[in-house]
Amino acid sequence: MVLELKKPRPIWEIIFSTHHTDIGLLYIIASMVALFAGGALAMAIRAELFLPGVQIFEGQADFSRFFTVHGTTLLFLWLIPFAAGAGNYLIPIMVRYKDMAWPKLNAVAFWMIPPCMFLIWGGFSDTTWNAYPPYSILKAPGPAADMWIVGLKLLGLSSVLGAINFTVTILKMKHPDLPLMKMSLFSWATLVTSLMIIVAIPTFAASLVMLYTDRLGVTGFFNPEMGGDPIAYQHLFWFTFHPEVYIFVLPGIGMMYEMIPTFSRKPLFSYYSGVVALIVIAVIGFGSWAHHMFAVGMSFTEKTVFMVGTLAAVPSSAMHVFNFLATMWGGRIKFAAPMLFSVGGILLFFSAGAGGVVNTAMPLDFLTHDSYWVVGHMHLFIMGTITLAFVGFIYYLFPLITGRMYDQRLAKIHFVLTFVGIAVIFGVQHILGLYGMPRRVVDYLPIPELIIMNQIASFGGWAIGASFILFLYNMIKSAMFGKPVDPKDPFELGHGVEYYYDYARREPHH
Amino acid sequence: MGHSTPEWVYIGAVTAILIWVGAESWNIEHTLEYAPPNSETVRVVGQQWFWSFQHADGTQEINELHVKEGIPYRFEIVSSDVVHSFNIPDFAMLMDAVPGRVNTMWNIFDEPGEYLIECREYCGMLHQDMRARLFVEPNTDNTTASQPESEPTISQGTGTATVVAPGGGEVGSTGTGTMRVVEPGNITASNESGASDNTSSTASDSGDNATTGSTNGTSTTSAAGVTLSIPAGAATPGNPAYSPDTLTVTKGEIIAVSNDDTAPHTVTSGASPGDADAGQLFDTSIIMPAGKAEIDTSTIDAGEHPFHCTVHPFMTGTMTVQ
User: Fold this and answer.
1) Which of B71, B65, B207 is closest to B140 using CA atoms?
2) Do B121 and B13 share a structural domain?
């Protein structure tokens, strides 16, 4: 076993290891640290918004720092490292190779993440996670924004190195007996995600350099006073970060493709359509970035093109939902925690997707843009779909990693609290947006509807926070004292479930 | 695989719904895109952290916008510092104010009343307070908008349209579809010239903090010995806010206030905008960049009086009246 908390291996053995399971474990632990740290900031944000007026923070400036670091942490230090960690753990096993293609590069990619955490948390920038100029150039003096830029720059490098490693491992190190079209869908999702990272990230990396030299005053790419255009930054930014949405979500989809057939005790409905949908969205996902920018003054033609591009990405997401439901249909489903989280994730994925169609419909976008609707929408994706899938996958991997079983009752309570919390907070935030509440504000007008809805949202948020404390307790306690399980069939699904853990042959450590 | 039929049916249904959504959106957006040729133009300037409005007749308003019911208005939205977003939630109007660009948007306000205007793009320290009020007044004399002169001018709603000279009445939209860059400095300069033509128009009907932009340059020539200047860079927290920031005057003297910064400021009594008596003793209201104002101390009691800037509450100073 890799992780045995009762008889721990010496810490340096894990830290200096280049074995893929150790690196995977480090990724997962680092990402969970970020999950709890970023989540704590969200709790403070919800406490501030519980009542109108300014109570906890000194003003908008402190509040801005909190939501900036909250967003940056959870997007870049939770979602991306966790997906990389799960991939590290499973991809070499799934493609039947002894390790990643380049183990040392793998370790380097991981060890770039702690400095990034330090930079982002040490700086505590207030530019929002999208750092639009000219605010980020002219009005955010001091080292905070510089540290944020360098931190994200390093993170991008780390992602690209990891993605190259995954791509080469999957395409070149795959066992010769394993054809591409027999590979698990989780491997497909990781492959597609990695290719998207390699295409998307360099654009943002370049714009970060431009942003930095603009801040130094030596260039004026985005500075209107020097002939630059702030909108250019927004295009570069979203060219990376709309595909990034799919980079976040596809690993989650891949994990659901692992969990749902397993716990439905039924083969996947259609492997082929899953692969096609993954590839199609990776291509079309690059043609929709400017739907984040309808209100910056785009021409009718531009808006139409990006609306069509966005709508075109919907069928492939819908295909996954269909595939999941058709797989569950008629199966003998066992609702263990991973399955509960997957099903919850499907439900909210569908809701978030429907909200996304509303956002991209041009006239409606002007109603929802930059309001709390958008906050609710994107959190429904990030919490409701991706985080639910990831957390389900933590439960799914738990017996593999520790050889023990988590406390199943606590896990179910965790699911119920989280799911209800997510549905409440982010559902209500959609309505708040329609009432005209702008996002990123420390204070709102003391209108009864706004107050009540914000309080409901805060309770939802705190329910999620409480459930994740249960989760942490469950993970630590069960890793030490949990019931040892049969590694062949930890969830007691019975015989005939061949694709659970048949790849779990341990390789000796380097 | 044998599963292809239900998959194709499903994908067909999803695609049909999406095509319907797309077509409807295209249709509606198309009707919203082009402003009627007889629209009245209002220029909207977003600045940290307030809105100012300039009507075609030169009238200028700050944080308040008065429009008439039933008349098409075309808004030209600009920014003089960072990206803001001009939003009237009740009319689903939203357009970013981007420095260096002129974005346009139009609407006919069909329901008289008072509405909220807010900023929806994060713009810094007082983003949440960057609100203004929209007053839609009943159109009593029942004029439709000033009828366009003979040639029908077409506002080509590319979203980046034209600049109408402030104070010049003509709604001459050339609509080349190209962007005309307005330098941030020029916007405020032209506002001032517009305001000085018609200083009397809005001063009376605006509320507590909303008055005209700059005071007339003529009245600042009094021989007051006391000057208070707002140095360049005062809008950034940490920089010197007022020079001098502790000011001693003899009762009856007139303080000449000059704004040497590139942002608008005020000199308002009270330690912060939240004070109950803020602005009770003296208030210059908004002084535009390079603008001047004066404070008459003859009505102020002797003693120490803190003052601040309502636009940038971190700018504070103290005045001692002897």
Assistant:
1) B71
2) no
**Distance between CA atoms of residues B117 and A19, nearest Å:** 57
Contacts of A299 in chain B (CB under 8 A): 158-160, 177
B92 touches chain A (CB under 8 A): yes
The residue with greater pLDDT, A41 or B242, is A41
Residue reference for tokens 């918004």: A49
- Tens of pLDDT, residue by residue over A106-117, are 999 999 999 999
Count of C-beta atoms within a 10 Å radius of residue B246: 10
Set out the domains of chain A in order of their start, with CATH numbers.
Answer: 11-481 (1.20.210.10)
Question: Cβ(A149)–Cβ(A208) under 8 Å?
Answer: yes
Instruction: Compute the distance between CA of residue A182 and CA of residue A173 in angstroms, rounded to an integer.
Output: 15
Do A132 and B7 count as a contact with CB atoms less than 8 A apart? no
User: What's the rounded Cα separation, in Å, for the pair A68 and A242?
Assistant: 18
Q: Total domain count for chain B?
A: 3
Q: What is the pLDDT of residue B157?
A: 41
Average confidence (pLDDT) over A382-404:
92
Total residue count of chain A as it appears in this document:
510
Option in B28, B116, B121 nearest A370 (CB):
B121
Q: Do A250 and A192 meet the contact criterion of CB atoms below 8 Å apart? A: yes
Q: Are A99 and A19 in contact (CB under 8 A)?
A: yes
User: What's CA A54's distance to the chain center, in Å?
Assistant: 31
Residues B126 and B171 in one domain: yes
Cβ–Cβ contact B122 with A under 8 A: yes
List Cα–Cα distances, B259 to B202, B283, B288, B293, in angstroms: 22, 14, 7, 8
Q: Judge if B50 and B101 occupy the same domain.
A: yes
Q: Are B15 and B45 contained in the same domain?
A: no
B270 and B140 within one domain: no
Domain assignment present for residue B208? The answer is no
Q: Measure the CA–CA gap between A412 and A397, rounded to whole angstroms.
A: 16
| CA-CA-CA-CA torsion sign (A183, A184, A187, A189) | positive
Asked if B124 and A270 come within 8 Å (Cβ–Cβ), the reply is no
A316 DSSP 8-state letter: H
Q: The domain containing residue B299 runs over which residues?
A: 217-321
Written as six digits, the tokens of B79 are: 């920014």
How confident is the model over A380-387, as a mean pLDDT?
94
What does pLDDT average to in each consecutive run of 10 residues of chain B (322 residues)? 78 93 90 85 91 89 90 92 92 91 91 92 88 89 50 41 38 36 39 38 37 38 67 77 84 84 81 73 79 82 83 82 84
Task: Closest CB to A361: pick one of B11, B21, B124.
Answer: B21
What kind and span of H or E run contains A243?
helix A230-264
Residue B200 is predicted with a pLDDT of 37
Q: Classify the phi-psi angles of B271: left when phi > 0, otherwise alpha if psi is within -120 to 50, otherwise beta.
A: alpha
User: Residues of A with CB below 8 A from B119's CB?
Assistant: 438
Q: With an 8 Å Cβ cutoff, is B15 touching chain A?
A: yes
Question: What pLDDT shows up at residue A178?
Answer: 85
CA dihedral A238, A363, A433, B61 (to 10 degrees): 100
Q: What per-residue confidence (pLDDT) applies to A276?
A: 93
Let me know if residue B210 belongs to a domain.
no
Are residues B223 and B170 part of one domain?
no
B24 and B96 inside one domain: no
Q: CB contact, 8 Å: B7 with chain A?
A: yes
Residues β-bridged to residue B115: B134
pLDDT value at position B136?
93
pLDDT surpasses 50 at A160:
yes
Evaluate if residue A431 carries a pLDDT over 70.
Answer: yes
DSSP string, A139-158: S--SHHHHHHHHHHHHHHHH
| Complex ipTM value | 0.86
Produce one character per residue of B59-88: b if its CB has 16 or more CB atoms within 10 Å, e if not. Answer: bbbbbbbbbbebbbbbbbbbbbbbbbbbbb
